[in-house]
């Protein structure tokens, strides 16, 4: 919406009543008693567009002056209460509260109304076009909005800090392998995992899910339930790496390829695909808010919501903690806003009539948009390693929903209410496209290893972390608890899948505490040399000729010699990519080719 250039000070004053104009004239120096509307307007215009402007400006308090500065330097001269409150966490006074508390009047207008006025045709508050350049001459522009962040979190025993980067790099490999084993069941209709699958995946996740499984003490108790385990099957389906076949997930051709692709690249593709996916509306996981599937268009499209959050993550500093509340305010202060529903009256808590979120103050940003932000960050951004998270149990973590009818028995409005703060990880910077490449962190071991003949590794002390176990699984076979043997076949398979044996070497050097024994060094060197000794250039087709003479003639002719190779007396090999051209050339020689 563009501001109408005719919305001058005189035009906007003409929309006011005589009593309102008299209130405003009272703020002018030497304000005379004027009765006629046209004279009142003329007096205000002369003062505000003349030398008296700075004297009137001096009447404003600090908050009001900030509001004028924001609006005067806005490209369209607009004042947004949403933006201002989000940035300064207070609001300027446009009216003086009436003396009588039961009065229906908004109260007398303040001097701020001489600078910022309501434009009925535009449906918003603006600085008149002819007043704006005069204000810009002496009113300083506001600094660009910033987002509050800190190097470290405040000490809080209730908070759990989850570093997600390494978890995500492991989890994506674990999930792909689990699907490869045809062990992940999903609904044919909804593509959602069932309870048994969620338990299976939860046990496999690096570090487990965000919250441990809880036993309900009473029938009415709320359940947090799985979060990471719920997200992974959806992320892999949305990313095109898994497809549902007869109630089970199978790897797609892209999923098969992803098994041998560096995990960070796979995660980047999953993040980009999820931003555009329509497989699930994250808000549907806010179970306490009903009516999301009511008739008609209730919920908005998910892609614009995700785009607004992703754009704000792009502006966040890397490696610094940001409170979720500060993130939400920054979104509003920078106009990165979105809608969750087309009609809040159709959403409700407990009762469709009494608990409708369409009632004033019940379906605001804190109830709808903030809950969507929490769900998106914890269930998807954190699961993919975009952000580290600090969280607590959701019960009574937030009280902003307590005014909504029907929430008395709820200990939390959403399972994500416990999310307190997050920080963008180095992996997240890569997934967001802010960094062109990603280097995974080195595995820091807390165990001590010894080396025995026959390439055997033994744990002297400590317990392998889950990522260390996963690392050894790529290169060694277990012999007994605490003992492993490096295996050539398994190691070559790992290199074929894209794993770097240098990561194994770094881990062994760190855990061994001494230079590696000669047999282990030799094993690693041999795998490095031979792991990529052969390279697949493409697929080919075997073609059998009727006799050796025909094969020799086709392989020897200039038209076809560059397109095929002899593979036997009567057999030729042709690359699949060259097959159409080979068929055409063979036909020109007078030969036909059938399947």
What is the total number of structural domains? Answer: 4
Share in helix:
25-40%
The share of residues in extended strands comes to: 5-15%
**Count of helix runs:** 22
Whole-number mean pLDDT? 91
Tell me the Rg in angstroms.
34 Å
* Shape, per Cα inertia axes: elongated
End-to-end span in angstroms?
64 Å
Uncertain residue ranges? 1-5
Q: Please give the number of β-strands.
A: 20
Derived structural class: alpha+beta
Strand order of the largest sheet: 6-12-13-10
**Quick one: biggest sheet?**
4 strands, antiparallel
Task: Report a brief summary of the structure.
The chain has 595 residues and is of the alpha+beta class. It is built from 22 helices and 20 strands.
What does it look like?
The protein has 22 helices and 20 strands. The chain has a four-stranded antiparallel β-sheet. A four-stranded antiparallel β-sheet has the order 14-15-17-16. Strand 7 (242-245) and strand 8 (248-251) form a beta hairpin. The chain has four domains: 9-136, no CATH class; 160-213 and 224-431, no CATH class; 448-530, no CATH class; 540-588. The chain has 595 residues and is α+β, with helices and mostly antiparallel strands. The chain is elongated and about 115 Å long.
